[in-house]
UniProtKB/TrEMBL annotation:
Boundaries of every BED-type domain copy: 18-72
Organism encoding this protein: Rhizophagus irregularis (strain DAOM 197198w)
Name assigned to this protein: BED-type domain-containing protein
Gene Ontology terms: cellular component: nucleus
Compositional bias per record (Basic and acidic residues), positions renumbered to this chain: 1-10
Claim: Transcription regulation is one of the keywords in the record: yes
InterPro entries membership: Znf_BED, ZnF_BED_domain_contain
Length: 246
């Protein structure tokens, strides 16, 4: 008696896990340096990371890469701005036993997520516009001052303030500027350079509209190059090309 074995297609097992992150379409993935972590380099500029965190790579393409195409910049601006909506950046702090009842002494009104987002944005602007050191956000007296205003608001950590809220606000501002410039015609580019207190050569590039609105389009550190006429022409042409793409 002969056994007949029917041929049947072999089903491949689904490996499961998260799908590959789209960031690697714009970032070169290097060697693995840990669980889910890789060395990385930008496909558009010379930036490299020994340990490329996805959030940092997105922030680079959204806010800091000088050579990324406009479409790529806009895509990652949206991703950075969406990040704040998907997670609550103001996490409750762990106070020591002596501070655990701080809320009992302060006025308290419940805050919804939208209200917390507005407060966070105002907090970032305050620290930046006034030149306040980011470490102050974790100072007990500053926290107590905020609790006096409303005990329901939890101040962000220094890390969240710098790495999340600041980057999100920067993406918001860049997106708004680009949107405004898209509506305008006959733009004028002005630029100026100076030496910082750390002896760096800083140049700003300002776009002016016919209605006399001014937008800081780019701030560049040109310390590594000689400021010859030919070099400055190249820099200006590159800025103009970026404005035209946007």
């Amino acid at each position: 008696m002969t056994d007949h074995i029917e041929d049947s297609p072999i089903k491949k097992k689904n490996r499961g896990g998260r799908p590959p992150n789209s960031i690697w379409e714009d970032i070169n993935k290097g060697e693995a340096v840990g669980s889910g972590k890789f060395a990385a380099s930008c496909k558009y500029c010379k930036n490299t990371w020994s340990r490329g965190e996805v959030s940092k790579l997105k922030e680079h393409l959204s806010n800091h890469c000088p050579d990324a195409p406009a479409a790529v910049v806009r895509r990652y601006m949206s991703k950075v701005m969406e990040r704040q909506d998907k997670s609550k950046s103001s996490k409750k702090r762990k106070y020591s036993e002596g501070q655990s009842n701080m809320d009992d002494y302060h006025y308290s009104t419940e805050l919804n997520e939208q209200r917390c987002t507005r407060i966070n944005r105002a907090l970032v602007k305050f620290f930046i516009a006034c030149g306040i050191a980011f470490r102050v956000v974790e100072h007990l007296f500053f926290i107590n001052f905020i609790k006096e205003l409303n005990a329901e608001y939890n101040t962000p950590t220094r890390e969240v303030l710098v790495n999340q809220l600041l980057e999100c606000e920067l993406a918001q501002v860049n997106f708004k500027v680009n949107s405004e410039l898209e509506k305008e015609m006959n733009l004028t580019l002005a630029f100026n350079g100076w030496t910082s207190s750390t002896h760096r050569s800083i140049w700003n590039f300002i776009v002016m509209t016919p209605s006399r609105k001014e937008y800081l389009y780019q701030l560049s550190d040109l310390s590594e190059n000689s400021h010859t006429a030919e070099y400055l022409v190249t820099v200006i042409e590159k800025v103009i090309e970026g404005i035209e793409e946007d």
